[in-house]
Amino acid sequence: MPKKIDNIIIHCSDSVWGCAREIKLWHTLPPPDGRGWSDIGYHFVILNGRITPKQELSALDGCVECGRYLDEDDIIAPFEIGIHCLGYNDHSIGICLVGKSQFTQNQMESLKDLCLELCQLHEIPANNILGHCETVSGQKEGKSCPNFDVAEIREYLRGAL
Predict the structure, then answer these.
(1) Active site residue ranges
(2) Which helix (H) or strand (E) holds 9?
(3) Is the pTM of this model over 0.90?
(4) pLDDT tens digits, residue range 118-143?
């Protein structure tokens, strides 16, 4: 049975370059080169400007790309379910920032703006914005993703909502 969107889970790509197209390849290629999934795991990807190992386009720093399909209603239909956080996939939106442990100012501003819009659109409280590492499955797996303190994003949203 479809569930209401009630969480946003923040991730990082654990790569210094990439975009939604590349992450989709990483997720859909069969093992051992990829994960063998049916689609990209995240609903949104926030770029850092490094699209390939050798191509940097500063104009794309902070750009938000759409990943897995997500329509305008508050329900995660079966074809919208992400593959980004065990136990949350069927009721959350997955956002991935391209990077490992350093993120640009533009990426962080875009993350705040995107989270604010999604929280308003889907009536998600600020406390329901979590880093992957803050989820039960992320803790069991020893995740540090997204490798920054998501509490700062929640604090910003509490003041903005």
Answers:
(1) 11, 42, 132, 143, 145
(2) strand 7-12
(3) yes
(4) 999 999 999 999 999 999 988 888 88
